[in-house]
């Protein structure tokens, strides 16, 4: 790329090849979202700074927001995620149908250090259910995620489930000070990157007592039945058990689901079940993640509004697909390239294009009567399956020559028979 | 809306009702774009200020760009349109297939005075063909626009066609100084808003001689055959005539097409044919517009790269649809709401939901066992056609009750027969 013509670091052009794959994945994601009753919503790219920062939702991450003053000298910032915009929307429109189930697929911007798999502009695909405390909502989101990863074609994926309530109980049981809880969760969340030993070192930094540290690490290593016996407060465990039973009743394929007491998630605002999906055998990190956050949405109008959501990491999904060599077969919407042979036959070629278009099929007309070889090359680059020649010979005999780019065969047929031919051909190719 | 929770002026939340209609229209637009061989492309929301302003493409409008410094103190600006990003992309990637036919559907931002039909964040839908001087490109774009407006359901629309070359010839013939040409075009472009008399007054302000003024106005009133006789330079006329003949050959429905010598377009960069589509009987302004701009794309790498494009004004299309009461029938992707009757039957209801989902159809589960009437109301708000009850009576008899929300009839059937029933029902509703 010409260096004077760069995009900003961490922001990328999405050229046709990337876009077609992206749209293919987004189409699969939205079609599952919609089958589960989620409806589309979008919010502006820019919000008042007061909205973005007012409730301290992002904590430390707030410094990653693109902040500036607009031409009216108002402090504004660019969409960092969809959680705050969702909270604003729910609080602003009292007539919204509850439970409110919406999905939002747009770009977000984070002034983060660009690195592998981390961009400054990227797509997020969020679904949230606002207005219910029922764990059925969690179950639906987890099943929906499974259905999406299956629809995309992933074979080995795993959704890990835990509960912030359970983690809090473990902290309490281990004698960890309430004020250190969230720092502890943040340390645990780095496990995939820095390993369990790294996490233990981080526990050190938090200033946990040796006893607390050992109690936590031993608790996190227990199977759920053991934990249930161990812990005095059973609420978190009960939540996880209910969620698992709903998943089973709803027909979730349980081979993609596991309980993982180490799962903690990096955001402060979670209050109940949390979950994260990874594709096994890749090191790209999680491709989906979410959880319950019952105290956030209501902050904007001082009401109690429970909510739960999951976010599909589109950029990571695309990266994993590349890594695993998953290339969805995307057929060209254009089936015919009508070439231009020479100036005098242009009108004839255009009429042929019209005739083929009348059958409803996608047709490109090469706009110039350049060397026919170059026009064929164009068809091959754009994966157009048939190339049509309507030159002087064809004009004389009221016919067209059609080359099948796949088989390499070429046939000449009368214009009068074109329609029947098309119908037959298109049926075969369907 | 709660005033403390506002979006920025001129920027709007796109709630589900709006989004569904928007997606319906976008789907029609893209499917036509793709049938004509255009491929999707997207560019980042933020560009270096040097790119946006470097070639003085936007002229006076440059002051409408959201400009700021990012956290690294670099001058940047938000996407104002897709023309400069397209020029940057074409210049940056030498391997791009030419002619390059891409579409771009994203939001753009303009810090304009918000007013009726003018927003600060809005969608644009652009198609451009880069790399050919052939007027076949213009013809394809005009036909494609017609096909889009027909697909959306508009009956009375008109694409007006003119040529900047022709307008320049008229200026020359009328003795208008070359330096005043563009100001004159800008004045003419206001005709729809201020009327011909208003335009004439603006001519006054430009300081045109009485003779020049009269010559222009009289020329602009001539039919094309008359103009051809009148003007010494026939190039512009020839261009328009070629375009019309291509349109006819390509099967364009000519009742939606007219030559309009008054059409001028507001951007400086057009060099050849220009066009604009209006929906008759509305005063929203044009819903599509474009033209040839052969000197812009190449500016970024000092090459000659011809280009032509058309932009569909999605926001205006939506406004006109509202005005004309055009409400596309958009079926709910969810066909069944499974209600929850009481706590003990939740698991049974979830299993029923699973059974219906297995048929491949969209199903929502109401997440709480609240009053059944409220659950029915939810189904009706979300236009879900069938509501399923799987309560204690149904559990006892291994059956479900299904209410058809349209007819109001309710039937009870054995679980074992659910599948056959579904197959029959779904076939009928297809």
Summary, kept brief:
Two copies of one chain form a homodimer. In chain A, 40% of the residues lie in helices and 20% in strands.
Keywords, separated by commas or semicolons:
homodimer; 430 residues; alpha+beta; BirA Bifunctional Protein, domain 2; 15 helices; 20% strand
What does this structure look like?
Two copies of one chain form a homodimer. Chain A is built from 15 helices and 16 strands. The first copy, chain A, is an alpha+beta fold and 430 residues long. Chain A has helices spanning 16-35, 49-54, 83-92, 136-152, 164-174, 181-189, 191-205, 210-220, 224-230, 235-249, 314-323, 346-358, 372-381, 392-396, 415-429; strands at 39-40, 46-48, 67-69, 75-78, 100-109, 121-130, 157-163, 257-259, 273-279, 288-292, 307-312, 334-338, 362-365, 386-389, 399-404, 410-414. The first copy, chain A, has two domains: 3-323, BirA Bifunctional Protein, domain 2 (2-Layer Sandwich), CATH 3.30.930.10; 334-429, Rossmann fold. In chain A, the strands form three sheets. In chain A, strands 1-5-6-11-10-9-7-8 form an eight-stranded mixed sheet. Chain A starts with 15 loop residues before the first helix and ends with a helix. Chain A is elongated and about 95 Å long.
């Amino acid at each position: 790329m010409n260096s004077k013509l760069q995009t900003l670091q961490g922001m990328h052009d999405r050229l046709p090849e990337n876009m077609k794959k992206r749209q293919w994945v987004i189409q699969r994601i939205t079609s599952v979202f919609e089958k589960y009753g989620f409806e589309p919503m979008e919010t502006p790219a820019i919000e008042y700074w007061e909205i973005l920062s007012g409730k301290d939702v992002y904590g430390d991450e707030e410094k990653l927001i693109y902040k500036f003053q607009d031409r009216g000298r108002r402090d504004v910032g660019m969409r960092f995620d969809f959680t705050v915009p969702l909270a604003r929307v729910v609080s602003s429109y009292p007539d919204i149908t509850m439970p409110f189930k919406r999905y939002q697929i747009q770009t977000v911007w984070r002034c983060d250090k660009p690195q592998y798999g981390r961009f400054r502009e990227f797509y997020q695909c969020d679904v949230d259910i606002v207005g219910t405390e029922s764990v059925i909502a969690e179950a639906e989101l987890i099943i929906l995620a499974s259905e999406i990863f299956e629809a995309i074609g992933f074979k080995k994926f795993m959704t890990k489930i835990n509960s912030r309530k359970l983690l809090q109980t473990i902290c309490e049981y281990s004698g960890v000070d309430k004020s250190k809880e969230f720092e502890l969760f943040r340390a645990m969340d780095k496990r995939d990157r820095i390993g369990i030993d790294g996490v233990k070192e981080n526990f050190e930094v938090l200033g946990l007592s040796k006893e607390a540290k050992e109690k936590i690490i031993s608790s996190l290593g227990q199977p759920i039945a053991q934990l249930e016996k161990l812990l005095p407060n059973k609420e978190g465990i009960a939540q996880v058990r209910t969620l698992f039973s709903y998943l089973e009743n709803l027909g979730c394929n349980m081979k993609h689901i596991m309980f993982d007491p180490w799962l903690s998630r990096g955001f402060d605002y979670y209050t109940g079940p949390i979950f994260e999906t990874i594709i096994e055998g890749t090191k790209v990190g999680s491709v989906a993640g979410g959880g319950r956050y019952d105290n956030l949405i209501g902050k904007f109008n001082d009401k109690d509004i429970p909510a739960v959501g999951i976010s599909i990491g589109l950029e990571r999904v695309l990266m994993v697909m590349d890594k695993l060599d998953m290339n969805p077969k995307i057929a060209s919407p254009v089936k015919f390239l009508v070439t231009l042979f020479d100036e005098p036959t242009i009108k004839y070629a255009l009429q042929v294009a019209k005739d083929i278009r009348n059958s409803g099929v996608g047709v490109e007309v090469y706009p110039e009567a350049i060397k026919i070889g170059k026009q064929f090359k164009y068809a091959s680059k754009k994966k157009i399956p048939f190339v049509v020649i309507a030159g002087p010979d064809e004009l004389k005999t009221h016919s067209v020559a059609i080359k099948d780019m796949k088989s390499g065969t070429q046939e000449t047929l009368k214009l009068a028979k074109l329609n029947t031919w098309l119908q037959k051909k298109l049926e075969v190719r369907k």
